Amino acid sequence: MNRGSSVLRRGASSVVVAALAVAGLAVSGAAPAAAIPAPECMPTAGYNECRIFESTGAKEDFVVPAGIAKLEVRAWGQGGGGTAMTRGGSGAFVSGKVRVTPGEKLDVRVAGSKDGLIGFGDALGGKGNGGGYNGGASSSLRTADGDPLVIAAGGGGGSDQGLDIKGGNAGDGGAENGKDANEGELGGKGAKGGKGGAGGTGDGGNGSAGADAQDGGAGGDAAPNSGGGGGGAGWAGGGGGGGKNRFNQGSGGGGSSYADSAKVSDVEMVVSDGASAPRKDDPFWDGAPYNSPVESGVAAGAGGDSPGGRGRVVLQWHDANKPVVDTLVKESGDNQTVGIYDRGEPLVVVAQAKGGRPVPGESVTFSIVKHPSPGWFEDHSSNKVVVKADAQGRAKVEDLTGNREGTITVRAETNNGTSVEFTRHVKKDPTDGIKVEAVSGGGQQAEAGQEFAEPLVAMVTQHGGKVNQDKVEFRVESQDEDAPAFEGGKRIVEVTSDMGTATSPKLIAGQGTGEYTVVAHYKNVTAGFKVEVLAKNGQPSPSPSPSEGTGSGGDDDPGSENSGTGGSGSDDDGGLALTGATGIGLLAGIGLLLAAAGFAAVRLAPRLRTRLRD
């Protein structure tokens, strides 16, 4: 249990999480909840499927999957708004196991707000007045008919000044009872079960009482123009703060939480002590959205002139028919060498059951487990990200970066403990003096289904010396099943260099016609070859032209025909470059389109952020 938190357990009671609106969607002129994309979900032990619900400004439906009779629910209410001097109360946490029927529809509403305005929830927090802050909304899970299964209360909103300009604390969203604000008679009172909390009282005005459960559970408003805070919402709402004068106001009381004891078992209700969110140690709790200057973590009471932390609802279940992952196969991205801040190739694993059958939809966590200096996944606030496998069982992350030289180790792991590790070497000069040149084989033509006349040949050197007896990869850069392939139908093959020379196996044209690119890849450096497949009865060239492809690497002569630095390109005959007026016009047109779409700003933003962390 978290220090400073109190926990209420009831063995035969219940809890679940979701929501159905009991109160209106928004106050007049208020913005709807900020829609935060729901992250992918890694089930905890005993479960193999889960779903995270974030506040979207509208209720969401959840249909119980086939064969499922029980769901585990975890719900957080929204924290109240506040400042460093008058902190908002935290939202409550409720969890439990809910009895359900396959195919049954449930309603989920998750509390949230935008720019300090009341936004959305099962019920809404009360309004702060005269500089006071709004109370937090509640989150819920309800049946399709509107019957509550679980409600997690919101925290009260902080007042403008507190007592004698010394501040104060709003009441936290409670378990069965919400907490009172700490400004004495000026502070709003917490809800008691299904009864709304009383409003704070003062010579400058009294706060409104919170709504009873039968009336929707909204938080009470602060006294008009008082500087008081609004009450938190819940099963019943907390009372709004009262006012005395410009230097003395009350914060709002916290709402109460609820679980249907007839349908929810193993109930746990947690209320925090102060603005800190309850159950921050829970794997589904999350901090403030990445790069947000004002928002708080899930259910946290605000302490910086901002709204409280958003709510969250999580559902978990066990699907007995889902295949069990036996192995994770590394498909790409391992043992790469990249430059500082460069992403490199994606890290890709394939989740497989016994017998090599892919497991689609499997959750895979990619975690940075070792690094000599900071490494992170761009656009994520931590060094961990959960990814869902696609229909072929592939799970992929593309945004791993490092800001200093060193080796980063990333572990990919499923919830049953199956794991593999990747290494990523970060260097100032990622080519490390390596140069790969396309010597011959580029520019060939062959009819569909026929062999190309000659193999592809690349020269691999490092710091001027020829790389001997090391693995070089040849790869057809196409997902088209009718693209060319090497002997045996392989799109990727490994060969061993002989005094710098790497020679591919026979390349066979597929049924697809047109130009294709094949690359020779050594560590982080590539060279490209262009080949063409003609329709049958075409006229393939009798022999390849030497040095038709391109190269890349850390060459001291960047002006050489067949090499580049840190990337791959192409020459006039067999490459991908655009030259002359046509190429310049096309590139200019593309540039205008990308600029109009704001592409440059989006692409550069992660780089700028990563540099600021250094």
UniProtKB/TrEMBL annotation:
Region spans: Disordered: 152-234, 240-259, 273-310, 535-575
Residues annotated as transmembrane: 584-605
InterPro entries: Ig-like_fold (IPR013783)
Signal peptide: 1-33
GO biological process entries: carbohydrate metabolic process
Feature: compositional bias, Gly residues: 185-208, 216-234, 240-256, 300-310
Gene3D superfamilies, sorted: Immunoglobulins
Keywords attached to this entry: Membrane, Signal, Transmembrane, Transmembrane helix
Record-given protein name: Uncharacterized protein
Organism (species): Streptomyces mesophilus
Organism phylogeny: Bacteria, Bacillati, Actinomycetota, Actinomycetes, Kitasatosporales
